[in-house]
Fold:
Amino acid sequence: MLLLFLSYTYLLICYAVYLADAAAGKTIFLLSGQSNMSGRGGVVNSTWDGYIPPESSTNPAILRLTANLTWERAAEPLHRDIDVAKDSNIGVVGLVPCAIGGTNISQWIRGGDLYKQMMKRAEAAVKGGGIIRGLLWYQGESDTLTLDDAKAYKSRLRRFFCDVRTDLHLPFLPIVQVALASKVGPYTNMVREAQLGMKLVNLRTVDAMGLSMQQPENLHLTTKSQVSLGKMLVSSFLQMCLQNHL
Structure:
């Protein structure tokens, strides 16, 4: 499985926003949600084609937190042991993969296994030095299957974001979420409306609708689309930071 999240985007973020903080330790990003966050580009019939675009080449200044809570150089597949179901002036970037495919937002509530695992990984990430600078969130396909889940999605998602900020003691943590690109269930539009209509301080939503999807499943983004989405996330994150002087 291709677990593609764009090492160069985080270098751009650090360079543009956090250059002055480079000596303070790692700039850390939590990557959470379900399968389109962990990435399925290049996967056909459960087999990954092995292609890694230049934008996702390894870099000694970009690390990932493993399932064993240790840092190693980030390389694809980025979520390989999580989702099993350089410019020297920039400093070190720490990516914390947390996404699990096929998960409903109700499985990410405070106190649940996925939430506790994400918090455990976040805490481990900062122990060696560094600051959590943002949460990237891509989830919601599993909530389009029933009317009850779709109706509850907005309130559940809002509570999740607020709980994460509270438990990380980062009340203004920047969050960039992705509005769904795929139409899995009959209530996709309702979940998308909830995502696009979410209003919180330091929250931005990028819309993945229109990006190309893996065929014939029409569920996961292609590798090319993941690269495009990475650029969208960078642009949204930088605009938020610049506008709010983060």
User: Anything to note?
Assistant: The helical segments are 7-17, 35-38, 113-127, 147-167, 188-196, 223-244.
